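User: Show me a protein chain along with its predicted structure.
Assistant: Here is one chain, sequence first, then structure tokens.
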Amino acid sequence: MRLRYGMNPQQTAACAAPVTAGDCPVRVLHGQPSLINMLDALNAWQLVREAGLLLGRPAATSFKHTSPAGVALAGPFDETAAAPYGADADGIGGVASAYLRARDADPKSSYGDFAAVSSPVDADLARLLASVLCDGIIAPGYDPGTVAVLSRKKNGRFLILEADAAFTPPRRESREVFGVRLTQDRDETPLSANLLQVVTGPPLAETAVSDLLLGMAVLRYTQSNSVCYVRDGMTLGIGAGQQSRVDCTRLAGAKADTWWLRRHPAIRDLPLAPGLPRQDKINWQVRLIEADLTPSERSHLAQVLTRPAAELSPGQRAAWNARLTGVAFASDGHLPFRDNVDHARRHGVTCIAEPGGSVRSDQVAAACEEYGITLARTGVRLFHH
């Protein structure tokens, strides 16, 4: 397969070929992918395929730069998630609801994403994708008429890939870096509830088990170091590719707070001008939540408001954030210090899954016990690079 270009436009001689001749896991239905498009598509498809099979519900992800911005299972969504897209919370279900929930996790980062879903694209999802800035999608199939709808996006440049749901990858995988070929066994360790061995705290509820398993599936295809916060079958915050694990925890926690604060009436009902583009409205909400507007931004915001709007005080923010609970936290590697637990609890976390094995594992367990957090150790590291 001839690619549009490689990692960057100046890398023009780029191609993709199956390891075994004639045995390719994807086919291009429309458009011409770049190397990054293929990396996003292949990783995203593996994630939703595994999550969908593991949890028995359609799964979707919004991918950016080889890591997910959001992941979700099909399920209900609220007005805050629906409003930017003009969606009907009672009229959209199935795979379309999974993608809307995945995109709602971090709508600022999902701008210009690559989508993946575990079930065939239906008319609802095609209409939703047609209305958002998205570069392409990979799915195991497409209902009649949906490819025609999607092929008109981006002046005909929207990428439509079809995954072979029956494809079995080779047991060994390789990559080449600076003239060196690196080969390893593919990680085929099955994820299951049996991995979640509780070492402290109350027993895990069924919903917590489901959320922790979703979190582990997410981390398997997220650039390490990585952690994620999950609630009700959707990620609230994903921290990826940080050199320090606690930085991942803080970054993902800030994203979870942003997701929750977008539901505060002062943010949800921000009086922005009706004609303002959707992404501008989302970005202004996020900037107000981040509470560090520059003088120039304040001046610009005043011009797009229909009336003056008060900013949330630190006390209002703290009171609202204290209402967030029932959040699951998963880590791809062991928690090396208790500071990860200290930060995680600030974002509504009630259960944690991590591999264990740190020299300070007893301190991590003690922190969980102090906060009443259930700690489950899996014994499985899920690094992805």
